[in-house]
Amino acid sequence: MRPIKVPLPGKRILPYLIHGFTWTAIIILTTYFYMSGNQTDTQALWHNYRNLALYAFIFYANYLVIIPKLFFNNRKVWYFIAALSLIIIITTVINYTYQRKPPMPGRYQDFQRMQPTGPVPQMRPQNSAPGRGDRPKPPMNLPLYNFFITSVLVTGISLGLKFSDRYVEQEKQRKEAEREQLNTELAFLKNQINPHFFFNTLNNIYSLVQTNVNDGQKAILQLSKLMRYLLYETDKESVTISRELDFMKIYIELMRLRLTPKVDLKVEFPETFPDVKISPLIFLPFIENAFKHGISNRTFSFIHIGMSVSTDRIEFTCNNSLPSGNGLNIDEGSGIGLENVKKRLSLLYPDKHLLEISISERAFLVKLIINPELYNA
What are phi and psi of 223, to 5 degrees? Predict the structure, then answer.
């Protein structure tokens, strides 16, 4: 049974912390720039704070309500109508408050006093007489205009951020679905491996019991250890390489019992190594294939198995002879194991493995390189 993954509290509050920090930084910067300009009109500063509160309202009204309810429900026209209506309503309210109480009451009078009183020739048509139109008009209501433009920008930012959040969530769901599919496929592949493994092993034990009772009993004890490993370890996503090596050693010793002196069996496993993590039963199909197709009781044959382990690399090799006739049916006899391990490698280590299989007239060579994960006990 796989452990249930509970999301950490820090991951749930992180978005709130980011939003809170952003708005706090905006308020602090607004106050800093206002104070650094030697301003003394605190009424204008409070107007800026009020505008920030309204920007926040527009942002979260879009972010939390309007975008999810309209834009992401294929009602994009209604979304733009609603977002624009919200900006217009708030801007109208701002305009009304500006008329009653301007945010900077002294600034407009200062502007009027700074304007020239005479006509502006280059701005006056040739045939028009000097008059009221010669004096430059007061500028557009810049605070109101800036508020409207900034509100539109805030709305666009909220839309972009919501798109980003939705993309991240969809990617998370996609990866979770891929992970569930991976676990399902791996469980299916392991269930294929185990019956195939027991089928060959029980046949070997049956032959041993008929010829040598002691060897048969020893084989049954070794098989019980293998079954314990298969029952309690292979359901995990990964195991330590030390456990996998112990499993392979027991299996090889079990297979050694039925070998004749005509078979040259060499096994070179490391004595000391970093205990990295590896998916269980990755190497077994190659070893099983070697014992099934690489030995002969009539002619000389060989099986050479080796492995080296480092923190970032596991290199496994298995080289076995192909007695006459075995090479022709190699795919028919071992198709289940070899095809399954290829699929598992592509699912578990898509960019972290290299598998090379060379078949000649008399030998079958497998070389597998995997980039494992460190095991933290």
Answer: -65, -35
This prediction has a pTM of 0.52
Local structure of 168: helix, strand or coil: helix
Distances (CA, A) of 150 to 30, 59, 158: 15, 11, 12
Same domain? 168 vs 311: no
Three-state SS string over 201-243 comes to HHHHHHHHHHHCHHHHHHHHHHHHHHHHHHHHCCCCCCEEHHH
Beta strands 363-370; 313-321: pairing state: antiparallel
Q: Is residue 185 part of a domain?
A: no
Please count the structural domains in the chain.
Answer: 2
Domain with 307, as residue range(s), is 212-370
Q: Does one domain contain both 56 and 153?
A: yes
d(C-alpha 236, C-alpha 234), whole Å = 5
Tell me the per-residue pLDDT of 270-313, one tens digit each, with 9 for 90 and over: 999 999 999 888 898 899 889 888 888 788 999 999 999 999 99
> Cα 252 to chain center, whole Å?
38
Q: Does any domain span residue 116?
A: no
Containing 97, the helix (H) or strand (E) segment is: helix 76-100
Instruction: Tell me the C-alpha distance between 278 and 208, whole Å.
Output: 33
On whether both 100 and 231 belong to a single domain, the answer is no
Classify strands 353-359 and 313-321 as parallel, antiparallel or unpaired. Answer: unpaired
Tally Cβ neighbours within 10 Å of residue 155. 23
Give me 328's structure tokens: 């022709």
Q: Is 78:70 a contact under the CB 8 Å cutoff?
A: yes
Of 364, 342, 340, 365, the C-alpha closest to 353 is 342
* Residue 307 β-bridge partners: 316
Tokens of 293: 């197709």
Tell me whether residue 13 is in a domain: yes
